[in-house]
Amino acid sequence: MTFKTFVFLFAYYLFAVFLYILALPYILFLLKRPKYRNSLPYRFFPIFNTRPLKDSIRFHSCSFGETASMEDVAKSFVEPVHFSVITDTGYEQANKITQNVSFLPYEIFLPFWERRSKLLVVAEAELWLMLFAVSKLKGSKTVLVNARISDKSYKNYKRFKFFYKFLFSFVDMVLAQSEKDAGRLVELGAKNITITGNTKISQKYEPLQNYLRDEKIVVTAASTHPDEEEAVFDAFYDAFEKGSARLIIVPRHPERFDSVYEIIKNKADEKALSVGRFSRNRNFDADVTIVDSMGELINIYAITDIAIICGSFANIGGHNPIEAAHFGCKIVTGPNIHNHKATFEVVQGYEMCEKEELSEVLKAHLQIKNSSVISEKNPSQLVKEKLHELLYDK
């Protein structure tokens, strides 16, 4: 390590300590919220946080989708695998892959928490300087996979180009989702880049539960955010004759289950529609069902006719359409898909509209083609080949 590198890392570490002290009262406040009650103690007070296994294959991903996309890759190694994650849903998914799972501690704890691994594999946009730097300085090989830079975040990345150039000096290999992502990553200082696509395309989606449905049209609003539930409900009510269709609403975040139910229940009562909570009866017999359980979306896509991929009518950046396309759902999305452009590029047959146009699109649903995934390559296989080559080829 050069003196310049040491000074930069030390200055960054001191800045991170300052931010930690400054944010400590707010962190303690957040501990009262159910959303953060499990993860925050391990991330910001990690004395009891399980450390990674030495000489393991280390994976880090943020949440459910990123973690699930790493399953096939992780299972290709004979060495022990350890996952670190950020969210509760990521933790639950990682536990299905391996028992070696931890919440990633805040950066100031990483020099004392990390152990030398054979390989560090970080998913998508989890660009934590201390994670890469500490791992590299402890002797690990480091890779960023499914790497992407969204349109929305690109300007912010460029403003701190000097920082990311320094960060990428600790990254041995970058596996990008698309040519556009690769070009942006090069501009930020990344080297040794290969375009492999997104491993989410290669995932095998099989329902764990087979739910019954009748002849009525099933419309699923997937991964909804605030204000999207009301917009979808209004469009659904306007587009379909009463009793001809069922609406399933799947909120993105579990802490919103209760509030979404209350909002939709009030609107449904005005329209004389029945509303059910999935956790109570585990069926979809009501006109509108709020899915207040995690990990059900794949099962629901299997019985869905029209999938409305949300997070795209709000300024969120959209969500992954691959699962819905795998089951041949008719896909409707809003225009804000900047976080998932690469995945939408391999989906054939989807309709994009503004929130105000959703009702008319649903009325014309017979004209929407069933979706499918089109890809000439297997991203998961390409990623496995590149990782094994880096790890095992001398």
Explain this structure to me?
By secondary structure, this protein is α/β, with parallel strands linked by helices. The chain has 19 helices and 16 strands. A 7-stranded parallel beta sheet has the order 3-2-1-4-5-6-7, with helices on both faces. The longest helix has 28 residues, at 3-30. The model has no long low-confidence stretch (mean pLDDT 95).
Keywords:
394 residues, alpha/beta, Rossmann fold, 2 domains, 7-stranded parallel beta sheet, 19 helices, 16 strands
Indicate the topology:
Blueprint: H1 3-30, H2 34-37, H3 39-44, E1 57-60, H4 64-68, H5 71-74, E2 81-85, H6 88-95, E3 101-103, H7 110-113, E4 119-123, H8 129-137, E5 141-147, H9 151-159, H10 161-168, E6 173-176, H11 179-187, E7 193-195, E8 217-224, H12 228-239, E9 245-251, H13 257-270, E10 275-277, H14 278-281, E11 288-290, H15 297-301, E12 306-309, H16 322-326, E13 330-333, H17 341-344, E14 347-348, E15 350-352, H18 358-363, E16 372-373, H19 379-392
Parallel strand pairs: 1-2, 1-4, 2-3, 4-5, 5-6, 6-7, 8-9, 8-12, 9-11, 10-11, 12-13, 13-15
Antiparallel strand pairs: 14-16
